[in-house]
Amino acid sequence: MMVPSLKLPDLIQEIRGAKTQAQEREVIQKECAYIRASFRDGDPLQRHRQLAKLLYVHMLGYPAHFGQMECLKLIASPRFTDKRVGYLGAMLLLDERHDAHLLITNSIKNDLSQGSQPVRGLALCTLSTMGSAEMCRNLATEVERLLLQESSSYVLKKAILTAVHMIRKDPELASIFLPPCSKLLHECHHGILLGTITLIMELCERSPVALRHFRKVVPQLVQILRTLVTTGCSTEHSISGVSDPFLQVKILHLLRILGRNHEESSETMNDLLAQVATNTDTSRNAGNAVLFETVLTIMDIHSAAGLRVLAVNILGRFLLNNDKNIRYVALTSLLRLVQSDHSAVQRHRPTVVECLQDTDASLSRRALELSLTLVNSSNVRTMTQELQTFLETCPIDLRADCASGILLAAERFAPTKRWHIDTILHVLTTAGAHVQDDAVANLTQLIGGAQELHAYSVRRLYTALAKDISQQPFVQVAAWCIGEYGDLLLEGSCEETEPPQVEEEEVLALLEKVLQSHMSLPATRGYAITALMKLSTRFQDNNRIRQVVSIYGSCVDVELQQRAVEYSTLFRKYDHMRAAILEKMPLVERGGPQVDEEAKESKEVPQLLEATVPDTAEPQATKLLDLLDLLDGMSRDSQHPVSLDSTPGNALVHPLDLPCATPPPASIPNLKVFEREGVQLNLSFTRPPGAPALLLVTVTTTNSSGGDVTHFICQAAVPKSFQLQLQAPSGDTVPAQGDLPITQIFRILNPNKAPLRLKLRLTYNHFGQEVQEIFEVNNLPVETWQ
Predict the structure, then answer these.
(1) Are 204 and 167 in contact (CB under 8 A)?
(2) pLDDT at residue number 101
(3) Contacts of 534 (CB under 8 A, 6+ apart)
(4) C-beta atoms surrounding 303 within 10 Å
(5) Residue among 345, 357, 341 at smallest CA distance from 318
(6) Please, are residues 168 and 175 in contact by the beta-carbon 8 Å criterion?
(7) Long-range contacts of the stretch 139-142 (C-beta < 8 A, 24+)
(8) What is the pLDDT of residue 647?
């Protein structure tokens, strides 16, 4: 005789009592066999009990797919106990990947129109959980009817959330729910009003028509929020003395969406935002949440200047809060505001600098990013000193960012060359192992161009090198400088009142120490041996230098060995040429050695070189060309801009450097290559006269949606046989409703007339979400490459 199956509480108790995984599996397999047998027998009174046990088994991670059809049978049953378990099973076991979920559409429709309140609630919960786009389209009119006619707040709240799910599944349903939303805004029930605001936000973010429609209700939203702030609707939903903070935050978020890029709506809500910002209690976290949402709204709309200053001051108060999360939010928000309200953020600079010393790594990183953006010509000395102090004690993972930030700030805002050199030397001696590779070249170029500071620089470097030779970039700069200006060490011609006395033997011994140190990299040893060779024309003790150089002629490092052999040969066979070969490097201006030549040629051909790329194009182009793994077999080196050939005998200009500010009209047809949620990318093509191998591609990005596209970046890659140059785009924000598109020009050189293909990567923010698209364009017109 078969033992009867367990009841649900007994099954739970037995599973929890299993001592091993094997015992648990045995209990579950045994019970699942009973459940299958019961389903086959078709006992309607036991079906919901067996399915409830199966759902518990499913929650433990075991297969339960054989119960899907039983869910449909229970949903179709007239008994509430069956429907309750059936709908729960549908939410857990069914989704839009299974075709079986479409079979419950009629049952849900019947329950929505004829069922009791609990049954309608179950149907709405199931629809909002696993309803597919097709189900949403079939049942949208039923949900709309409930929104307009239902009087029960219990059902109405669930219907509103179901409408939100439908909009997310199929944005084309937005027009159906516009009239109910206007009606529901007059409700005073907390849950209904909160759900309605959520539904309106979803509609506005996905439909430009809805956005324009609900901008008309901004005064009504303002009145609702003013009532919450002054009198409050219900003490039941107050938290820590703040009246219904959840509803306040939702309304503020909706106002931010409606006021963005709309001056009239922004003006309507300005007074209210000031009232919320000044009257909200900040002693509790609920008040801080409302204030932060107020700040975000002020930042995004066309708010008055005084209101923006008030928002910055609120964030400044957040920086003084003991809660680390609030301080982090404040730093992140100030980082967004610093470009538009720089002077207001500057007033909180001391507090931001104090956050650098926070023990929380995420806080100190955010504070470092904000501190670096606050550096300008008026505070560069003070801020650099603070950042240098932080550099000495900051965590290892922040040193690279801190060192790079200090070097960039010094390069942009250095008041004097001497201060600039001192700052770089301090960074190199403190965190030399964490600086970027170009720091050595930049400092040597800076010192070489400051002739009046040669003696000062070489003495500073020599003194610091004698104390520490562990920081390799610093040792390389010091070795280069000693090799170039070592004779100034002996002369004592320095700005210091009492320069230290240095002998030749001490300098040579220090460079030998660098060569022999186990901490020296091969590149550092190369700098040191070259410095020794340079000093052979500045010092008297050439025999010692010759001996040291000859020792490294048998070094295992091939590069160092080659240098040593060449230098020994210079001593032995070409000693008469050594002084001329090893003379001091000429002064180099920081713009590069070809600046004067290019300036002369620009005078000779002013018309041809008049259209040049602006200064901001260089870093932007560098960033855009840094495309990793975009195309298999595509060369990044070939995509960098081709340099101008300035020899008189050659052509005046390379084809890629032809002016293209106003390209002539082309007969090549345009091509649409991308479209998503109103964002569209079109390519137009033209060829400049006299350059058949050059193709100018104008990339035009438009936005017909209701939300702005921000932080837009378009990157491109081409095969190795092509040469690609990207000009700076006209901007990085595409306004909504098709205003002011972004344009960018690609210059592609195709000398082999090979078939052209492009790979594009687009990154941007749209409706609050970060979007990244990578796609290949293979259908370019034949005229683009023939």
Answers:
(1) no
(2) 75
(3) 483, 484, 486, 582
(4) 20
(5) 345
(6) no
(7) 139/105, 139/108, 139/109, 139/112, 140/166, 140/173, 140/176, 141/176, 142/109, 142/112, 142/113
(8) 36
Q: Is 378 helix (H, G, I), strand (E, B) or coil?
A: coil
Tokens of 643: 């340099």
**∠ CA(709), CA(294), CA(167), 5° rounding?**
50
User: Is the Cβ–Cβ distance between 572 and 564 less than 8 Å?
Assistant: no
Helix (H) or strand (E) holding 726: strand 723-726
Return the exposure string of 500-523: e unless at least 16 CB atoms fall within 10 Å of the residue's CB, then b.
Answer: eebebeebbebbbebbeeeebeee
Beta-ladder partners of 113: none
The three-state secondary structure class of 591 is coil
Which stretches of the chain score pLDDT less than 70? 1-4, 232-233, 492-500, 587-666
What is the biggest distance separating any 2 CA atoms in the chain, rounded to whole angstroms?
114
Helix (H) or strand (E) holding 8: helix 8-17
The one-letter code for the residue type at 637 is D
Given this model, what pLDDT does residue 736 score? 82
d(CA 256, CA 254): 5
**Dist CA 523 CA 515 (whole Å):** 10
Is 684 strand, coil or helix?
strand
**Calpha distance 330→312 (Å, rounded):** 9
Which are the contacts of 115, defined by CB distance < 8 A and separation ≥ 6?
Answer: 123
CA torsion 611-615-616-622 (nearest 10°) is: 90
Residue whose C-alpha is closest to residue 161's, from 137, 131, 125: 125
83 sits in which H/E element: helix 80-93
Question: Cα separation of 724 and 746, whole Å?
Answer: 7
* DSSP secondary structure code for residue 300 in this structure: H
Q: Are 671 and 781 a contacting pair, CB within 8 Å?
A: yes
pLDDT tens per residue, range 48-98: 999 999 999 999 999 988 888 889 999 999 999 999 999 999 999 888 777
Any idea which residue has 């759902």 for tokens?
55
